[in-house]
Specification:
Elements lengths: L2 E4 L12 H22 L7 H9 L5 H7 L16 E5 L1 E12 L12 E6 L8 E2 L10 E11 L5 E8 L7 E9 L8 E9 L4 E11 L5 E5 L3 E3 L2 E10 L15 E7 L6 E6 L11 E6 L5 E5 L20 E3 L9 E5 L3 E9 L7 E2 L5 H22 L13 E5 L3 H18 L5 E6 L2 H9 L11 H12 L8 H16 L6 H13 L22 E8 L11 E5 L3 E4 L4 E4 L6 E3 L2 E4 L6 H8 L7 H8 L7 H4 L2 E4 L1 E3 L12 E4 L3 H11 L5 E4 L6 E2 L7 H5 L18 E5 L21 E5 L8 H13 L10 H5 L5 E3 L9 E5 L9 E3 L2 E2 L28 H16 L2 H19 L1
Parallel strand pairs: 22-23, 22-36, 23-24, 36-38
Antiparallel strand pairs: 1-6, 2-11, 3-6, 3-10, 4-5, 4-7, 7-8, 8-32, 9-10, 9-31, 11-12, 12-34, 13-16, 13-20, 14-15, 14-17, 17-18, 19-20, 21-27, 24-25, 24-35, 25-26, 26-27, 28-29, 30-32, 33-35, 37-38, 39-40
Helix pairs in contact: 5-6, 5-7, 5-17, 8-9, 9-10
């Protein structure tokens, strides 16, 4: 055994509504949702019935995937891209000898430290192991050895945590050393001295050895950032024996409970009742999916027995057996317990190598097919609007994208006007992509219910939106609607989802923007792009973490009708599968796809704020708070100094914060509420060279990117929030190099500063090395912005041409259409107060008058039409560059 076992025999330890009206509505909704939490227990728990349903579902077969055209990874490798591959990779034996520590400072007031070291290598074992505690000694000596079986292509970072054992209070955590195993060379033994505190001369001495291990190499699947490893399926079966009845015979196993547990498996623990009316058979075994490399143990608690204290013992007969799963022959039934009343069998088999997620950084096949079809609309449209003499060839056709920003109902309304303006100019037919966040996602999801919306005028859609924007909203809190909300939330809980206030917000949005229940789903929008008849919609969100501000940790997430994914890791799932449960890239439990209202709630989750976000709104940065909200991490010296390798991480020391810092950090970073969905990255591991991968490096911008054990693949849930909590922009999916976007029409609907989000985007792209045009707006213009700015990106080769449309009211005050002045009686219609203190267009306004709605639509449409020349100039520039590039 090579999974953290040590030489010692001890076991490891175990009308128009005002902002005030909106606030009252929010408080009412919050109180109602709290009531639901109490009465319905909306936290998702895995009941036995739910597990039986889970186990009865089969993983999607390879044949059906190929038939549906959605098979992304083929076991034979024919359809894999060059960036994703299957390979055989050796495993090594890592020996860790915890020798001693010196000059450990006193943590207790009345006594010396009682030190022990806890070892954690999550890429090799589910368990944490520890040395014995040495009492009242500042220079403890342990000399204990531990063994781990590690995969050479995985980033293995060993955590060595020093604790002071306390009997009454919780053990004091003194510090943790993070050591990258990639520093070690095969076949060599080194003794490392980690200088943990130079002033106090604290030091931890540990010996390491890395050796070959017997057995065949392991088959892995990797895209250079994530690694998927082999998983197995264990079936545990109980068969009750028939026997003759006797008068004085004791009761049989009627209603007796068996408990099965495989630590680190997808299922975890299953408690199953066996009674006279329920006898196990081969059609109903208890199943566990686990990673073979961690070599876990099956822990069985028999009826009438208590769970054994150790998972390492092996007890047979009528006791509670524990079986090390590597000892079970593959594909064979093995008897674990033979009893007069029942037999207990176990069988382990390898799971297929193909994955149910797409590992890769390229575009999915469906999007590539869409681009080919969409080009048949775009090329003739460009020829027409640019008045070209010749048809555009494929390589001469630029990729044009429409990018929007959030802004609640203001952005929903203004986007309709902008799109109608682009339609009148013929430019809408030139667009390949349409991206959105927050309020613009509400417009997009409404439009894509019509399979041919961009081929028609938008008057019908605008009229429908006008009806809902001007209706009374108080009905959304009626008793009838509250009952409906409760029913829908309970239904999501039964489906196996973790519900939150964000789900309730999505249902409220549904009532605000629709008549009755809306069964539309994101994957239904495939019908609106199956012929390339409309631009491809992309919706955005960011993944965040507890205890971290959005500036410190955020990861871009994109949603299309085809798939949902994180470009940083190069991992995507079919849109129909988002929210389902995955383990190591395999689909474990299929959950019904969410109705789009719940996604709209998440995309516009204005309730997912924290104190630091509010601080950041009024200050240029949150640097003042970093001493309270960031981990204290320092690079430390080590002896001997090992040769530096390109992909290795520096050895670092983490010093835990005190109780006051912990409390303050929680108060500053905790979010009011957050949307959580099952993490489809769960179980993956980071590749040894992930930091050197250029695609990961492009989006590497969080404080945890060099801490692989704490990245997203280790989380059970994704925590998704409105992109506006970082930057109010949906441009990031368009900057993916594989999409090759040439022109971006930036439609801005932000409140306050119209150029702040654009400045933030430029700064972010510059820091990340992402090609983006330099924004050069004079101070004079910043005081009084024009209706449109053209940034051609000439100073940044490869950057897209950017057209920036701030939402302002400039010449519209005097002109009702380009070149048509207003009469005296029409001047009032041009007075659109967008951002004043009495403006009806506050981000928090949820109801407009008919006049306010019409004026905003007309203004946003006018600003597009009045800048036709700049739009045509940008398109001409893009075509010329495409032709020059081919030459």
């Amino acid at each position: 055994m090579y999974c953290g076992r040590r030489e010692t025999k001890e076991s490891p330890p175990p009308e128009i509504l005002s902002c005030f009206d909106l606030l009252k509505m929010q408080q009412s909704l919050a109180a109602f949702f709290n009531l639901l939490l109490i009465t319905q227990d909306l936290d998702v728990t895995a009941t036995t019935m739910e597990q039986d349903g889970l186990l009865s579902q089969k993983l999607m077969s390879q044949t059906s995937r190929l038939r549906d055209g959605n098979m992304w990874l083929n076991p034979e490798g024919e359809q894999w891209t060059s960036l994703t591959k299957i390979e055989s990779s050796p495993c090594y034996l890592l020996t860790v000898r915890v020798i001693r520590a010196r000059n450990i400072h006193q943590a207790d007031v009345l006594s010396q430290t009682d030190c022990y070291v806890r070892l954690w290598l999550p890429t090799a074992s589910n368990e944490k192991f520890q040395t014995k505690a040495v009492k009242n000694c500042k220079d403890p000596v342990w000399n204990e050895t531990f063994y781990f079986r590690i995969q050479s292509q995985v980033k293995n970072v060993l955590e060595l945590a020093l604790y002071d054992k306390d009997i009454i209070t919780q053990d004091d955590h003194l510090f943790t050393v993070y050591f990258d195993i990639a520093k070690l060379s095969l076949g060599e033994e080194v003794f490392m001295h980690f200088k943990c505190d130079s002033q106090r001369q604290e030091e931890l001495e540990v010996g390491f050895a890395l050796d070959n291990i017997s057995g065949p190499p392991e088959t892995i699947i990797t895209n250079g950032v994530l690694v998927a490893r082999k998983i197995c399926c264990l079936e545990v079966q109980v068969v009750e024996k028939k026997k003759k009845k006797k008068k004085k015979e004791k009761k049989s196993l009627s209603k007796k409970e068996f408990s099965f547990r495989v630590q680190g498996s997808y299922e975890g623990t299953q408690d199953i009742m066996l009674g006279s009316n329920l006898v196990f058979s081969s059609s109903s075994p208890a199943k566990f999916h686990y990673a073979r490399y961690k070599q876990p143990t099956l822990d069985v608690t028999l009826p009438g027995k208590k769970r054994p204290p150790s998972l390492h013992s092996r007890v047979y007969g009528t006791g509670s057996p524990n079986m090390e799963l590597h000892s079970i022959p593959s594909g064979e039934n093995m008897i674990l317990v033979e009893d007069k009343r029942f037999d207990l069998y176990a069988k382990a088999e390898d799971c297929p190598d193909h994955l149910d997620v797409r590992l890769g950084f390229d575009l999915c096949m469906q999007e590539q097919d869409f681009l080919c079809k969409r080009r048949n609309y775009v090329a003739p449209a460009l020829k027409k609007v640019l008045q070209l003499q010749q048809d555009l060839l494929d390589h001469e056709t630029p990729v044009v994208a429409i990018m929007t920003t959030g802004g609640g109902m203001r952005s929903l309304t203004a986007l309709y006007g902008s799109l109608r303006g682009l339609k009148k100019l013929g430019v809408l037919d030139c667009a390949m992509y349409l991206t959105g966040l927050s309020g613009t996602t509400w417009t997009m999801s409404n439009l894509y219910r019509d399979a041919d919306w961009s081929q028609k005028d938008l008057d019908k859609q605008i009229s429908e939106a006008r009806k809902h924007m001007t209706k009374c909203k108080i009905n959304s809190l009626s008793l009838e609607y509250l009952k409906y909300y409760k029913k829908q939330l309970c239904q999501r809980k039964r489906e196996g989802r973790r519900t939150s206030f964000i789900d309730l917000w999505g249902l409220v949005l549904e009532s605000l923007l629709h008549d009755g229940k809306d069964n539309h789903r994101l994957s239904d929008q495939q019908r609106a792009i199956d012929r390339g008849q409309n631009p491809l919609p992309i919706y955005t969100a960011v993944n965040v973490k507890n205890n971290y501000s959005t500036l410190d940790f955020k990861e871009w997430v994109e949603f299309t009708p085809y798939e949902v994914g994180l470009q940083k890791y190069g991992v995507f799932v079919r849109t129909e599968d988002f929210g389902s449960e995955f383990f190591m890239g395999r689909l474990m439990k299929k959950v019904p796809e969410s109705r789009i209202c719940f996604l709209e709630g998440m995309w516009s989750s204005l309730f997912s704020f924290n104190v630091l976000y509010i601080w950041n709104l009024s200050h240029s940065s949150e640097d003042f708070w970093h001493r309270w909200t960031r981990d204290q991490i320092d690079n430390i010296e080590e002896e001997p100094l090992l040769p530096l390798k390109p992909h290795e991480l520096q050895t670092r020391l983490f010093t835990p914060p005190g109780p006051l810092s912990n409390a303050l950090r929680g108060a500053l970073t905790d979010r009011l509420c957050i949307s959580q969905d099952h993490n489809f990255l769960r179980g993956f591991q980071m590749h040894n060279d992930y930091l050197e991968n250029p695609r990961f490096s492009r989006w590497k911008d969080t404080v945890l990117d060099t801490f692989p054990n704490q990245l997203t693949q280790s989380d059970e849930f994704l925590s998704l929030v409105d992109t506006g909590f970082f930057i109010n922009t949906s441009v990031m999916p368009l900057l993916k190099p594989e999409r090759k976007v040439d022109v971006i029409l930036h439609l801005n609907y932000s409140a306050g500063s119209q150029i702040q989000a654009l400045d933030q985007t430029c700064k972010y792209c510059s820091e990340q090395g992402i090609l983006f045009p330099r924004v050069d707006v004079s101070e004079e213009d910043r005081k009084k912005l024009k209706e449109c700015y053209l940034f051609d990106g000439a100073e940044t080769p490869g950057a897209p041409v950017l057209l920036f449309f701030p939402l302002i009211n400039d010449t519209f005050q005097k002109y009702k259409a380009p070149g048509q002045k207003r009469s005296e009686s029409e001047m009032e219609d041009g007075q659109v107060d967008l951002y004043g203190c009495c403006s009806p267009y506050s981000t928090y306004s949820i109801q407009y008058t008919e006049k306010a709605f019409d004026r905003l639509v007309q203004l946003s449409e006018y600003n597009i039409l009045n800048n036709e020349d700049l739009i045509m100039q940008a398109l001409h520039t893009a075509v010329a560059r495409k032709r020059q590039m081919k030459k």
